[in-house]
Specification:
- The complex is a heterodimer.
- By secondary structure, chain A is of the alpha/beta class.
- In chain A, 37% of the residues lie in helices and 13% in strands.
- Chain A has a domain of 269 residues: Amidase signature (AS) domain (Amidase signature (AS) enzymes), CATH 3.90.1300.10.
- Chain A contains 15 helices and 11 strands.
- In chain A, the strands form 2 sheets. Chain A has an 8-stranded mixed β-sheet, with helices on both faces. A 3-stranded mixed β-sheet of chain A has the order 1-3-2, sandwiched between helices.
- In chain A, helix 9 crosses helix 11.
- The mean pLDDT of chain A is 97.
- In chain B, 33% of the residues lie in helices and 4% in strands.
- Chain B is flat, with a radius of gyration of 23 Å.
- The mean pLDDT of chain B is 91.
- The chains are: A alpha/beta, B mainly alpha.
- At the A-B interface, helix 9, helix 10, helix 11 and helix 12 of A face helix 1 and helix 2 of B.
Chain lengths: 493, 100
């Protein structure tokens, strides 16, 4: 019998529906794989019973001849940023350690309604702040990949690093991620998997621990474009509980997948040719152009003149929103309380937040507090919001000349854990290609392209027009079919 | 613009994060590095550009003006609301004494 853990979302769902294997067998296989992979530290808590219960429900529904959901029988990993009823939800922070929601996030509920089950809650950078999965209170996540000839633990990317590591290691067929400034795409690129951030508002933010509300978007991470299309279809949809939720129909992205790009124009943004980008990444970008041309697309040059300013604008807007969102952690309503002997309420707040937040979270709260403070608001925050408008306008103009944009996902491949911690800025720069699409709220995806000389995966990024997830997925499929990416990390865990 | 230790202490106090001297000392150069880097935004000509707050044009909806329009987020959830409180007492959140 096939090793069930080698299967993806579509293969599992269709196999369960056909009766090739039961959902319970699938859940048991993945539960066992998760239990064996503690060395990756991908999960903060595991929930094998949740996966089994969901599987039994699917098997019973099938036996009763009922129609099965889009994700029926597929056990997934849930980033620990989604509130899950009765299961600890921490955002990888100490301040939320032990927090057990009495409600379910909209996105996770939709996945359970579609027949998926939960293998566990996945590790991440604390409050999704980080690009290497080194800021979690629960320890670093190790990528399943190793650099050729080295045994050093590599970064799975971040912030959705538990998600990327689990999917690449085949201990989950798919996982949820969230993307504020690249947190789905960068980890997907680092680990040789696919990940799509839909248009802002496609997936409800209700029940997702907030980082920067005008940027936060959930999306799927899986090993193929088809699997991402299926899972995104189950996650997306209007939710009256999220005031920025898009009130529009969710297209059947899976059914409409089409890698024939004849008549489509693919834009190549000249400003993305940046100093400090690995030659292998530039080469893979060239290769990507050739693949899309082969799929029938016309390649055109486009300009996104404010690209260079997107990242600094992001590092004002995101911390500003974070400083406001994270004000809710006060040691009163939920989470950690640190109450030193004899102190009052204000000192309790300050002691709780000092003990409960990690260094990177504190840094961003302080930056955010500073740029929003009287006297600096206009110079920093208003200016950044104006630059954000220009970044979005650049994309709108570029999309008058093309249908989808092709760019690298990251300027480098994965790096060893601990190698980038000297200066917070060097880490921020890893998101230079991912952040512009986030600021503009556009759908964007990373698909694996190739392996570099060190044996590490490289990803290519596709950015689409607002609401055109289909165009992004289709171009991603065209690359997937031509890249034939089949490399797998060798099992060491 | 750059920040000194006193300014960082002020920001930390506004943000309600207790920081000792060593933590403040360490934070000063880190924040200055980031602030100097974002300073480049000043080069951008933003004449006539409106600051962008919402990236996808969307109008705010009004829900029906009825009690418990959404049962999940309506009232009558005291037990659920208090379930994760570090110190819930008599059906309320407990806090240290706030009157001197």
């Amino acid at each position: 019998m096939t090793d069930l853990t080698s299967l993806g979302v579509k293969e599992i769902r269709d196999g369960v529906a056909r009766g090739d294997f039961t959902a319970r067998e699938v859940a048991e296989a993945f539960n066992a794989a998760v239990a064996e992979a503690a060395a990756l530290n991908a999960f903060i808590v595991t929930t094998p019973d949740h996966a089994l219960a969901a599987a039994d429900k699917v098997d019973a529904a099938r036996a009763a001849g009922e129609t099965l959901g889009k994700m029926a029988g597929v056990p997934i990993g849930m980033k620990d940023l989604f509130a899950t009823h009765g299961v600890q939800t921490t955002a990888a922070s100490h301040i939320l350690e032990g927090f057990t929601p009495r409600y379910e996030s909209t996105v996770s509920q939709k996945l359970w309604d579609a027949g998926a089950g939960m293998l566990g809650k996945l590790n991440l950078d604390q409050f999704a702040m980080g690009s290497s999965n080194e800021t979690s209170y629960f320890g670093n996540v190790a990528s399943p990949w190793k650099k050729a000839g080295s045994n050093a633990a590599m970064s799975p990317g971040g912030s959705s690093g538990g998600s990327s590591a689990a999917v690449a290691a085949r201990i989950a067929p798919a996982a949820t991620g969230t993307d504020t400034g690249g947190s789905i795409r960068q980890p997907a690129a680092f680990t040789g998997i696919c990940g799509i951030k839909p248009t802002y508002g496609r997936c409800s933010r209700w029940g997702i621990v907030a980082f920067a509300s005008s940027l936060d978007q959930a999306g799927p991470m899986a090993r193929s474009v088809e699997d991402c299309a299926i899972m995104l279809g189950a996650m997306a949809g209007f939710d009256p509980k999220d005031s920025t939720s898009l009130q529009m129909d969710v297209p059947d992205w899976e059914a409409a997948l089409n890698a024939d790009l004849r008549g489509k124009k693919v834009g190549i943004p000249r400003e993305y040719r940046m100093e400090g980008t690995d030659q292998a990444i530039l080469d893979s970008w060239e290769q990507g152009k050739a693949w899309l041309k082969d799929a029938g697309a016309e390649i055109v040059d486009v300009s996104l003149p404010h690209t260079k300013y997107a990242l600094p604008a992001y590092y004002i807007v995101a911390p500003a929103e974070a400083s406001s969102n994270l004000a809710r952690y006060d040691g009163v309503r939920y989470g950690l309380r640190d109450l030193p002997e004899g102190v009052g309420l204000q000192d309790m707040y300050a002691a709780t937040r000092a003990a409960g937040f990690g260094d990177e979270v504190k840094r961003r709260i302080l930056i955010g507090t500073y740029v929003l403070s009287a006297g600096f608001y206009d110079a920093y925050y208003t200016q950044a919001q104006k630059v954000r408008a220009l970044v979005a306008r650049d994309f709108a103009r570029a999309f008058e000349e093309c249908d989808v944009i092709l760019a690298p996902t990251t300027p480098t491949a994965s790096f060893p854990l601990g190698s980038m911690n000297e200066d917070p800025l060097t880490m921020y720069l890893n998101d230079v290609f991912a952040v512009p699409a986030s600021l503009a709220g556009l759908p964007a995806m990373s698909v694996p392209a190739t392996i570099n000389a060190d044996g590490l995966p490289l990803g290519l990024q596709l950015v689409g027009k607002p609401f055109d997830e289909q165009g992004v997925l289709n171009a991603g499929l065209a690359i997937q079919q031509r890249a034939g990416f089949s490399a797998k990390p060798e099992k060491w865990w | 613009m750059s920040v000194d230790k006193a300014t960082v202490a002020k920001i930390a106090s506004l943000a309600r994060i207790r920081m000792d001297d060593a933590a403040l000392e360490q934070m000063v150069p880190e924040l200055n590095g980031i602030l100097q880097w974002v300073e480049q935004l000043g080069e951008v000509d933003v004449t006539g550009i409106e600051p962008m707050a919402a990236v996808i044009p969307n109008t705010l909806r009004l829900r029906d003006d009825v009690v418990d329009a959404d049962p999940l987020t309506g009232g009558g959830k005291r037990e659920d609301v208090l379930a994760n409180a570090p110190a819930a007492e008599h059906g309320f959140f407990g806090v240290p004494k706030v009157i001197e």
